[in-house]
Specification:
Length: 522
């Protein structure tokens, strides 16, 4: 029974009026109300069973003088009307059923209040309220079973009122409405659902059952397609021919899965709020989980398995056991990925170590080969390409570990070669080039960076006065040697003294400055 068709509303009376007053009101309304309507009002109010239905569909518990005020507010300001603290849960639910019929906005909010109000109705309290009212108006008392029967009928009426509003919506709007209503009513599945919501979704599930099944089948078809790609991948599915890496596209599966999930969302939330799991969600999730582990176990596609697991975690967040299992799978796959990364880094380090050892061996061999050619006084034209080759090898050492003892020892050997090229043979260009390469290798790595920089500076300073020609001994050194030889002869004959020996270019204070001495120690 609608609020505006209730006999108490039509007669402008209340359940507190006795039979005499009701007769008076009926007589007064006889001139303005249709005879059939008036006869129905008379039956509704004076028949004990029908009167209870009218009382329950009215505003039980509200004082007579406030009933007209509330009804007036219902048309002008329904929100302020609904928050009235004097309203009993049933009275508020009756008002909301009328609001739904005329509301165009905030439907989920009004339905939510209606559902919660229905849940708050307590039959024993309602029995007490109605019997107290009947005692004052002189009507017979009712029993609890009568209250419960009428409440069940009233709940059916409320449910019909919500369904009438849903019937006005397009399918996409209806789905959005129910998803939002379920999320708010259950606080995202964390609170038990109102009984009216459960009944509403049960009927809606029957309505979309076939559509839900077809969308799930689309997901299964995508899973089968991906299984075939994993079991028999075409060559272009692989990146860089590397095992465990693939370009299998998940967009089709993701799209079909999310399309299915949008329709299943309210049912997932409802079952979660009831402490259960949505069975179809479990079936779909199991197919995707099998695909993820098949990708890893069959082909080692770890990244693909991780992507599928992340997709499950996103889609099945409302399905408790699936979400928990997906989280465990993620942790397992992350651990496998970390172990794989450690293995790859270890392998790369081993490969780098082998490569560096081979490279240092070549540098050492080339350094000794050049020193041997210098000792044999081979022409510069023949030695030069070997020095250039050594410079190219040094560029490859730039990324090596500067703290590696082997790298440091080879660098010092190359330095001694560079000093020898300058001191003994005047090959300034080659000496400077090798020292510059060493400086780049040990840039910001002390004390070697300062050592090689000092060597270059010393060569530059010694050349500031007179620069020797590359490939020829310095003239000044030549004249000094001749002079020393003559002086030695004179002293030999005159004083029988031992000849003195000229010092060569200092190594700037390092014990490796003397190339011959260093080679002897090495």
């Amino acid at each position: 029974m609608e609020l505006y068709k209730n006999p108490f509303y039509l007669l402008n009376s209340s359940p507190y009026d006795d039979s005499a007053k009701l007769f008076e009101q009926i007589e007064e309304m006889a001139r303005s109300i249709n005879y059939l309507v008036l006869d129905q009002i008379r039956q509704d109010l004076f028949n004990s069973g029908q009167r209870l239905a009218a009382e329950i569909s009215w505003l039980p518990g509200l004082a007579p003088e406030k009933q007209n005020h509330i009804i007036g507010l219902l048309k002008t300001d329904p929100d302020s009307c609904l928050v009235n603290d004097e309203l009993s849960p049933l009275a508020r639910a009756n008002l909301l059923a009328s609001v739904l019929a005329q509301a165009k906005e905030r439907l989920p909010d009004y339905c939510l209040i209606l559902f919660r109000s229905c849940n708050e109705i307590k039959p024993d309290e309602l029995l007490k309220t109605i019997n107290e009212t009947r005692e004052k108006s002189g009507w017979p008392q009712v029993v609890l079973s009568q209250i419960q029967d009428n409440l069940n009928e009233r709940r059916d009426y409320f449910l019909a009122a919500v369904r009438n509003q849903l019937a006005k919506l397009k399918p996409a709007q209806k789905l959005e409405f129910l998803t939002l209503l379920t999320k708010k009513s259950t606080q995202s599945g964390t609170q038990p659902p109102p009984s009216l919501l459960t009944a509403l979704l049960e009927s809606y599930e029957q309505e979309v059952k076939n559509t839900l099944h077809l969308k799930a089948q689309t997901v299964f078809d995508e899973v089968l397609r991906l299984h075939s790609r994993i079991d028999f991948p075409p060559p272009d599915d692989f990146r860089d021919n590397a095992p465990g890496k693939t370009d299998i596209n998940l967009e089709g599966l993701s799209s079909s899965l999310k399309d299915w999930d949008r329709l299943a969302q309210p049912f997932q939330l409802l079952t979660k709020s009831l402490g259960a799991n949505h069975h179809q969600s479990q079936t779909v999730a199991l197919k995707i989980r099998e695909l993820a582990f098949s990708a890893y176990n069959t082909r080692g596609f770890l990244a693909l398995a991780q992507d599928l697991t992340d997709l499950m975690r996103e889609v099945f967040a409302e399905v408790v056991d699936v979400a928990e299992q997906a989280e465990k799978d993620k942790l397992l796959l992350d651990r496998l990925a970390q172990e794989k990364e450690v293995r790859e880094i270890t392998e790369q380090a081993r490969e780098m170590s082998d490569y560096l050892n081979q490279l240092l061996s070549v540098v050492l061999f080339k350094t000794r080969e050049i020193s041997s050619k210098l000792d044999k006084k081979m022409p510069v034209a023949e030695i030069g390409p070997h020095i250039d080759e050594l410079g190219g090898l040094l560029k490859a050492v730039t990324t090596a570990d500067k703290l590696n003892p082997a790298v440091q020892k080879v660098a010092l050997l190359v330095r001694n070669l560079a000093l020898s090229l300058y001191n003994r043979y005047g090959l300034t260009k080659y000496a400077s080039s090798l020292l510059a390469s060493l400086g780049r290798i040990f840039e910001h790595a002390e004390p070697y960076a300062s050592l090689f920089s000092s060597d270059l500076t010393s060569i530059s300073r010694s050349l500031s006065g007179s620069s020797p020609q590359n490939g020829q001994p310095r003239k000044s050194l030549k004249y000094i040697v001749i002079f020393l030889i003559l002086l030695a002869l004179v002293i030999f004959f005159l004083a029988f003294l031992k000849p003195a020996r000229s010092a060569e270019l200092s190594d700037c204070g390092t014990e490796q400055g003397n190339f011959a001495a260093f080679l002897t120690r090495s």
